[in-house]
Specification:
- The structure is a single chain.
- This protein is an all-alpha fold and 407 residues long.
- It has one domain (31-167, 182-401).
- Helix content is 78%, strand content 0%.
- The chain has 17 helices and no strands.
- It has helices at 3-24, 26-60, 63-79, 84-95, 99-109, 115-124, 130-141, 147-166, 184-201, 206-240, 243-257, 265-273, 275-284, 289-302, 304-315, 323-353, 369-401.
- The longest helix is centred in the N-terminal third of the chain and has 35 residues, at 26-60.
- The protein is globular, with a radius of gyration of 23 Å.
- It comes from Metabacillus litoralis.
- This is Sporulation integral membrane protein YlbJ.
Amino acid sequence: MSLSKFKTIFLAIFISGLTISIILNPKESLDASTRGLEIWWEVVFPSLLPFFIVSELLIGFGVVKFLGVLLEPLMRPIFRVPGVGGFVWAMGMASGNPAGAKLTARLRQENHLTSIQAERLVSFTSSSNPLFIFGAVAVGFFNNPALGILLASAHYLGNLCVGITMRFYGGSNETLHDSKKVTFLSSIMTAFKELHTTRIQEGRPLGKMLGDAVISSIQTLLMIGGFIILFSVFNKILSIIHVTEMIAFIISGILALFHLATELSVPLITGIFEITLGNQLVSETNVKLVDKVMIASFILAFGGLSIQAQVASILADTDIRFKPFFFARILQGVYSSFIAYLLFNPLYVNIQAYNTTDLPVMLMLHSPEWARNYWESVIQIGPLITLSSLMLYVVLYGRRNVFSKPL
C-alpha cells in the first residue's frame, strides 16, 4: 500500500472516530466548545484585532518599507532576512500568535521576501504576547506575578536563539549585505524615498484601505476562532477516550530522563494540543516550581497544535512551507526550557531574597497589580469589542459584496 493511500485511510478513520466520539459525548463536547469560544470571544479577538488592522495600514502606507530600510543592517547580518523582518518580529512579540505568520505571509505575497527568507522569518516571529504571559499564566494560573519576568525572558530569548539558528537554514548562497558603504544619513533618505514611493503606488483611498484592513483582519480572526474551538473539543475528546493518558505514559519516561517530575506528563500533552489549558494544568500540579516553569516555558514556546494549525492555514495561501516552522517550535521549546532553568535562580529565587521595596515595580513580587487588572479589564470589555467589530464586518462585507451588486 502506498503512503498516500495509507494517509487517506488514516485520516478517514481518524475523522470518523472523532465525529463518533463527539456524538457519544455531547455534553463534554459542548462544554469544551463553549470554553474555546470564550477564549476567542473574550481575549483573542479583542487583543489581536487592533494589531492586525494597524499592521495592514502600515504595510499599505509604506511604513514597513521605511522601517525595512533602517533595520536592514541589523536583520540581514544576524538573521539573514530583509529589514522588514524587524517589523514582523516586533509586531509578533507585541500581539502574539499568529500575527507573525500573517504578516510574513503578507510580505511574501508582496514579494518583499523570498520563500526561504519567509520560512526563516516565520520561524522566530511566532510568540505569545506579554499580556498572556504576565496576565494569564503568571498571575492568573500560577498566582505569582514574579514568574512573569522569568517566563517572558525565557520565551523571548528562546525566540532570539531560534532566529540565530535558522539563519543557517536554506544554504549560504545569498548576499548578506550590500558591499557598498551606506551612511546613516543616506539610509534615512532611502527609507523616506521608499515610504513615499509605496504610498504613491498604493492606489486605494484611505477609506477603502481601512475597510479592506478591517475585513481581512476579521476574516483571519474568524478562522482562528474556528481552530480554537475545534482543538478545544479535540483535546477534551482525547482525554475522555484516555488517549492523553496513553501518550503521557510515554512522555513520562522522557521527563524522567531529564530528571523532571513525571506528574507533568499529562499537562505537557494537553499543552501540546492547547496552550491555555496546558499551562493551567501545569500550574495546578504539585511538583517543584522549577519543573513547572520549565514545562510551562516549553508549552509557551511550542504554542500548541491549535496555533500551529492556524499558522498552517495562513501559510497555505503562499509558497512558505510549514515544516521549518514546526521544527522551529520544537527547537524554541527546548531553548526556552533550558533558558528558564538557567535563569530560575537569578530572576526568581535571588529576587525574592532582596527587600521587594528596593526593586523596580516590574520586578516586585507582589506589586504588579497592573497585570491582573489589565487582564481582567480585557476579559470584561473583550466581548463588547468582539460584538461591535463583527457588526462592523457584516456592514462592510454587505456593502461591498451584496448591496453593490445589481439585482
